[in-house]
Amino acid sequence: MTNVEPDRILIADDHPLVRDGLRTVIAASFPGCAVVEAGSLDEAVTVLEADGECDLVLLDVHMPGTAGTAGLERLRRLFPALTVVMISAAADRSLVAAALSAGAAGFIPKSLRREAIVDALAAVLAGDIYVPAELDQTGESEENQAIWARIEQLSPQQRIVLGQIVSGKLNKQIAYDLDISMTTVKAHVSAVLGKLGVVSRTQAAVAAGKVGFVAPDGAARVSRSAG
Q: Can you tell me whether residue 36 is helix, strand or coil?
């Protein structure tokens, strides 16, 4: 692996202790690198607009102004050339897949050991995509990979609805939980079934369960259309 010394890294996380920990790791591994911090997505955007020259952004999945891949998608729209790595206290394969599909250069669980974080940063800076081995899908069966490929076609709203289906919720319960109309629920469910290539809610739940799908934060806003 080629050693690449970054000049500037932005850490966007609303927890000061997390930022301090990552700053320490970066300072020890890349002593010439300047580290800037942001406690919210809006603050991160402000920093990048003021001086967009960053070799890498470490973006927390959940913090003020963002949840799931929404923050990543916003940064990618505003700064298309930016290299963004998602960091999270909790990770599952569906979230990792969604992040990579949205343009993340990697996914780093905050539980990784210091040495592993350094290796992950070095890999991304060298141009590779980093995903922890336990979250990597490349060793899965062709059937499971096909299921993941279909799940990646779902919009964030549709993934939330799929999570509700996996939990056994009826349309009426989904409408109540997500504060949307029955018509919107039916449209989302129809879109989910179509994209997964199944004909029933049960088949959708079985497919999602087979690959360990975990829905994104249900508090995220679900749009009024199927998308």
A: strand
Whether the pTM exceeds 0.70: the reply is: no
- The predicted-structure confidence for 187-218, as pLDDT tens digits, reads as follows 999 999 999 998 888 888 888 887 778 776 54
- Exposure b/e, 206-220, CB count within 10 A at least 16 = b: ebbeebebebbeeeb
Q: Which domains, from first to last, does the chain contain?
A: 8-135 (3.40.50.2300), 142-210 (1.10.10.10)
Calculate the average pLDDT of the chain.
Answer: 84
SS3 58: strand
Q: Please tell me whether residue 160 adopts helix, strand or coil conformation.
A: helix
DSSP 3-state percent helix, strand, coil across the chain (nearest 5): 50, 10, 40
